[in-house]
Design brief:
Number of helices: 16
Structural class: alpha+beta
Number of strands: 23
Strand content: 15-25%
Oligomer: single chain
Strand order of the largest sheet: 17-18-16-15-21-22-23
Largest sheet: 7 strands, mixed
Helix content: 25-40%
Length: 500
């Protein structure tokens, strides 16, 4: 019997390969960062070839660390940064340009132009998404319009498109020598090209965005065998699960029942609520997305609140300002002060996502006096994550008509106990951290494990979930409301800073 299941976790700043046992415990892990490329203000790129190389390296390293071989793994799942857009040559596998990252804002003018012709929500009924710089469709359109020769090559079937999951799957299963060109419904639902009702590419949307159908991957479920790794130490291992990173975390947190909620604190912050087989249209600035589709079973849907900048703000304080030497130092610095000193940091570096959807917002620091010091800035940066989560949680409660009872949390920032306590205080809800906090990777492993019968079913996955720590709210109600009111005032100051 196969002892383990693997997961590729390709994120915004790094790539990891994790190996889990039947209990969802980590057996081995390897991680490598990749470059963040900023060609001009508002543009964010990655090198797809570098990402592929890092993926191969961490797969080999994690296997080598424990002396494992391909026969020890029942399968591999892929989870990935969503919306990041890659176009490559069908015959050679060479990308036509760098990947355009989900945070990139170069299509802001196109967003305004499309919205002027039918409103920001003109595609929401079909896709669950507002017009935004966030999603893949307009990024793909930009490549076809601005990279010389791509429009003609795409029309002739010479180019392929995919988010990062598709690029990795195609390359790992053979590339130009017969690689599988596919994606799953969760990633497809983030392109703004897929119809939520049909779970397939929509002809009208493709026509509006001027995108040839021939370059698109086949849309498949989140849990099935797509192909096998064709080379390296894991050659012959089935790739059997694909989930966008936030949907993977929902699965990893075992949120399989309608109304169950998780929040992932990473580069950005992403709150998802499982709505079951029902597509719930948002009236309060949230996204409707596919949660997962397990094999031949009907798809489950989710409501999502996406926040662009949370952990990335800590990185910015480290890399751009030199306020800290490592991200771990942010909590120590924030604890040098008793409170935020009335300083509020709205990190609208890429505009504001849910629930505001303000492309023209920009980052502001409000409330500065000569009393403020670097400790207050550090605390304000951490608190910004909790405030943005409350913005999304309130919108979700209104849309779903379901009160949040507890919040299951995961991601790199949940190690920060000051932040987690403030999050509980601000929400006036319990915040629960699971024992296995690598829930994104775990969700991809679960999807693959279900497909190859490494796991028996959802009940086994629920039984694997175990609580590590719970934070209970302590802040007096008057203080909670005062702080949040000041935050809302600061947010309003960030609006309409940039002009389309």
């Amino acid at each position: 019997m196969k002892r383990y299941i693997g997961a590729i976790d390709q994120g915004t700043t790094s790539t990891r390969f994790l190996i889990f046992d039947h209990k969802g415990r980590i057996v081995s892990a390897a991680q490598k960062e990749h470059r963040q490329i900023f060609p001009q203000p508002g543009w964010v790129e990655h090198d797809p070839v570098e990402i592929l190389q890092r993926t191969r390296e961490v797969m080999a390293e994690a296997i080598e660390n424990k002396g494992l071989k391909a026969s020890d793994l029942a399968g591999i799942g892929i989870t990935n940064q969503r919306e990041t857009t890659i176009v490559w040559e069908r015959k050679t596998g060479s990308p036509v340009c760098n990947a355009i990252v989900w945070q990139d804002m170069r299509v802001a003018d196109e967003v305004a132009r499309f919205a002027a012709a039918g409103g920001q929500d003109r595609y929401r009924a079909k896709t669950g998404l507002p017009l935004s710089t966030y999603f893949s469709g307009l990024k793909l359109r930009w490549i076809l319009q601005n990279v010389v020769g791509t429009r003609e090559k795409a029309a002739n079937g010479e180019l392929l498109f995919g988010n990062v999951d598709t690029f990795l799957l195609w390359n790992l299963t053979g590339g130009a020598g017969g690689g599988v060109h596919a994606t799953d419904v969760t990633n497809a639902s983030r392109t703004q090209l897929m119809n939520l009702n049909t779970l397939d590419w929509d002809a009208e949307l493709l026509a509006d965005f001027e995108i040839p159908h021939a370059m698109l991957p086949t849309v498949r479920s989140s849990s099935e065998v797509y192909g096998e790794v064709n080379s390296g130490p894991l050659a012959g291992t089935p790739i059997a699960g694909i989930l966008g990173d936030q949907q993977a975390a929902l699965v990893g947190q075992a949120c399989f029942a309608p109304g169950e909620v998780k929040n992932t604190y990473g580069t950005g912050c992403f709150l998802l609520m499982n709505t079951g087989e029902k597509i719930v249209a948002s009236k309060f600035g949230l996204l409707t997305t596919v949660a997962y589709k397990l094999g031949h079973k009907p798809a489950n849907f989710a409501m999502e609140g996406s926040v662009a900048i949370t952990g990335a703000l800590v990185q910015w304080l480290r890399d751009n300002l030199g306020l800290i030497r490592s991200s771990d130092e942010i909590e120590t610095l924030a604890r040098t002060v008793e409170d935020n000193g009335d300083v509020y940091f709205v990190p609208a570096f890429s505009g504001l996502y849910a629930p505001y959807w303000k492309e023209t917002a920009r980052g502001v620091i409000a409330g500065l006096t000569r009393f403020a010091n670097k400790g207050h800035l550090a605390r304000a940066a951490l608190e910004a994550t909790a405030y943005q989560t409350r913005d999304v949680a309130e919108a979700m409660e209104k849309d779903a008509q379901i009160p949040l009872r507890t919040l299951r949390v995961d991601g790199g920032m949940v190690k920060n106990e000051l932040l987690m306590q403030f999050q509980a205080d601000l929400l006036d809800r319990e915040v629960v951290r699971p024992e296995v906090q690598e829930t994104t990777s775990l969700g991809a492993a679960y999807a693959a494990g279900l497909a190859v019968e490494f796991f028996a079913g959802l009940e086994e996955l629920r039984a694997n979930w175990r609580s590590d720590r719970t934070w209970k709210p302590k802040l007096p109600s008057a203080d909670r409301q005062r702080l949040y009111a000041q935050w809302k005032k600061a947010v309003s100051r960030s609006f309409d800073w940039a002009e389309n």
